[in-house]
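Quick one:
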Amino acid sequence: MTKYKIGDMDSMKTLSASDLAAIPIDQRIRLVEDLWDSIAEFPEAVEIPAWHKTELERRLREYDANPNEGSPWSEVKQRIIG
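Output:
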């Protein structure tokens, strides 16, 4: 079971996954949003895996070779949800 340390060194609390599961879902969602926002404040601290970069480069080359291939999002969404 993963334990999460919350707070500074003087007031550190440990939360387990079961502790987090006991929090009402709306509050857990808000916690996740707050965590994500705190990560997004420093995008340079998030390392992009090499395979992500490789895949993005591949897709860009594919797009550059065939820019008219594929479908706009509006059409894809329409096919998915009708």
